Every structure is written in C-alpha cells, then in structure tokens.
C-alpha cells in the first residue's frame, strides 16, 4: 500500500489514510487501495477503524492529481463509487475516527461509516461550492437523512465548517470526544465491537438502511428474517447461556 496503512490486532483492523503532506487528500491510488482493503479488511477482522495521519482526516479530492483530469463524472463512476460501495458493504462494522478536518469527499467518506467518532478539534466541511461543484461521494443522499433538509442545504450552499460538537448535536455523527481522550475512546469503542456479536451488528446495519424505504409491513418481515438468522447463530446461544449463568458472554462473531 502506497497511500494507506493497515494493521490488524485483536479483531480490530485499523486503516489509516497516510498522505499527511496533503492532508490525506484522495488521489487515484488511495481510492483504489481503500476499495481493496475495505472489501477485504483481513482475516479475523471484526471491526474496522478508518482514520487519518497527521492533522486531517481527509481533505477531499486531491486537485493536483493528474489522473483525475477534467473528467469529473468519469472519476466518480470509475473510482469513487467502488470505494464508497466497499465502505458501506464492508464485512465488518466501520468506525470513522475523525482526527481532524474532513472536507469535501473526505467528509462524506467519513459520514458513510457505520459510526462516526470525532475529536472535538475536528470539523466537517461541504467545501464543493468553493470550487464550483456540488457535494458528491453520497453527500446529497446521506446528509439530509442525518440532519434534515434545511441544515443540509445551508451546509452545502455556504460551505461553512461544522464543528465536531455541532455535528454531534445535530445528529450528523455519533459522538465528539475531547482531543486528549480521543485515541482512548476510539480504542475502547473498537474493542467493544471486536468482542461483540458480529452477525447482529451487520444485520442491524441492514435493517436500519432498509427502514428508509420500507413500509411497516416490509420492515416487520425483514426484522423477522434477520432475527431468525441471529437466532440460529452461536453468539445467540452463547448470549442466552451467559445471561442464565450470570456471566459475561464470550462472543466469537459466529
């Protein structure tokens, strides 16, 4: 890997954007590497932590990347879409650990994760109108669902930075954490998911995503099917046994 690093320990795959000299801007190589590693985070990975090196999470598209050229639509279709689909379909739950500014496509990359935890010094910026574009990387689909049409419209038209605390208050992200507690908090959250019932987590993801378009009858049917899958898992049997035995469950993700 030229633009990212990956470590895997104790069921936690940590994927780090590693172009700090350009605030981890997305170039063609990074998009390809992210698509590859998010689709296959590693044997035994039960949670993925996506973060950045240095003072930024990701500043968005690298405007000096000659491979993107002026074919903006083609770049989105050929390179961004596979990366974003790999993220939303990752075989383990994904925590975006936003350590610094997340701008443009970098913000929307983070917001597509299952859980977003940000340092309080971090910010989210829909910077696209500053260069005459519209938000992409799923932003126009996802952000109104998170914070509503009015806030989404204002954030996109004005390109105002949204602080991590404001993002948490609006429901854009799960939590904002003081900088001095950020690394410890992310590690604890990742460890909790790595030791949990992985099938349950992934089926929660499926159910919540489907709820946006399902009516109640369809959602009830989906819940029953997904619950049936969980009910046939070893983790469910272990959870019940642990509850009855008044002990902590030892989930294996199976």
UniProtKB/TrEMBL annotation:
- Gene3D superfamilies annotated for this entry? 2-enoyl-CoA Hydratase, Chain A, domain 1 (3.90.226.10), Lyase 2-enoyl-coa Hydratase, Chain A, domain 2 (1.10.12.10)
InterPro entries referenced in this protein's UniProt entry, alphabetically = ClpP/crotonase-like_dom_sf (IPR029045), Enoyl-CoA_hyd/isom_CS (IPR018376), Enoyl-CoA_hydra/iso (IPR001753), Enoyl-CoA_hydra_C (IPR014748)
Pfam family for this entry, one: ECH_1
Superkingdom of the organism of origin: Bacteria
Q: Which PANTHER family match?
A: EG:BACN32G11.4 PROTEIN (PTHR43459:SF1), ENOYL-COA HYDRATASE (PTHR43459)
The UniProt family comment states:
Belongs to the enoyl-CoA hydratase/isomerase family.
Protein name (record) = Enoyl-CoA hydratase-related protein
Organism name: Paracoccus pacificus
């Amino acid at each position: 890997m030229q633009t990212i690093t990956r470590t895997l320990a104790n069921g936690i795959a940590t994927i780090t954007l590693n172009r700090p000299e350009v605030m981890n801007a997305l170039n063609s190589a990074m998009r390809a590497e992210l698509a590859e590693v998010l689709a296959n985070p590693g044997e035994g990975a039960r949670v993925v932590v996506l973060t950045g090196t240095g003072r930024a999470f990701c500043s968005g598209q690298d405007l000096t990347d000659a491979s993107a050229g002026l074919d903006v639509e083609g770049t989105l279709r050929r390179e961004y879409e596979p990366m974003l689909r790999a993220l939303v379909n990752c075989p383990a739950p994904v925590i975006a650990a936003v350590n610094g500014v997340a701008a443009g496509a970098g913000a929307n990359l983070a917001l597509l994760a299952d859980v977003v935890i940000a340092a309080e010094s971090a910010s989210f910026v829909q910077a696209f109108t500053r260069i005459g574009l519209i938000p992409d990387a799923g932003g126009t689909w996802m952000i109104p669902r998170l914070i509503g049409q009015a806030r989404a419209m204002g954030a996109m038209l004005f390109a105002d930075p949204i602080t991590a605390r404001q993002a948490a208050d609006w429901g854009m992200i799960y939590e904002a954490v003081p900088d001095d507690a950020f690394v410890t908090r992310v590690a604890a959250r990742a460890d909790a998911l790595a030791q949990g019932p992985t099938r349950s987590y992934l089926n929660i993801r499926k159910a919540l995503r489907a709820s946006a378009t399902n009516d109640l009858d369809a959602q009830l049917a989906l819940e029953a099917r997904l619950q049936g899958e969980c009910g046939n898992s070893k983790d469910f049997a272990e959870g019940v046994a642990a509850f009855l035995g008044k002990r902590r469950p030892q989930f294996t993700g199976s």
